Amino acid sequence: MKKWFLALGSLALPLAAQAGTLSTGENIKLLVVDGKKVESSFWSETSAVNLPAGKHQIVVRYDGEVKDGSKTRIYTTRPYLFEMEVPTQNATITLPRLSTLSQAESYFQRGPEWQLELAGGAKQPLEYVELQGKGFAAFSDMEALVAEYNREHGITFEEGYAVDLEKAAVEVSDKGEISITGDALVQLKLWYSKANADEKAAFEQWVKNQANQ
Questions:
Q1: Mean pLDDT over all residues of the chain?
Q2: In whole angstroms, what is the distance from residue 97 CA to residue 108 CA?
């Protein structure tokens, strides 16, 4: 199948930044990259993106044709979200080949082993979050679903990179004690990322009022 390559304008960085191509393996659909829905053509789905090396947020799902007895059917999973370090070299998100429905169901029920395969052949495991939607049309708007996940977890994007503000501003000790760290700007970004649209508008109005005083 012909692959289409997508350059995301929101990921623009200085020309000196090294970039590679991140692809998805067979039957793995690329859904969202750094909060932006991956657009595909009518004839072919986008299966690769050019990304600067560094931390990015990638959302995919398995969507493949499998055997169900004498019939063939499409098996589709929930979306899987990775916060991953994209290398400078080309890399591919992979899964083992799944041939039958029972095999696919068993594999995902026990927890899939997603891997990142580098151009040189080396492989490394990928940690993931299985996104949970609500209702019949839970995954119809993937961009909104991912935005809600990011809001709840304090994740934002700066200069084309994913930034986990909770990790930057919240520290948990070995005893489970939580303390607020980071400077005031990081803390402001964290709380702003967690606010809903009305709360953000109210805060922006407050900032304007403070500037006019």
A1: 77
A2: 12
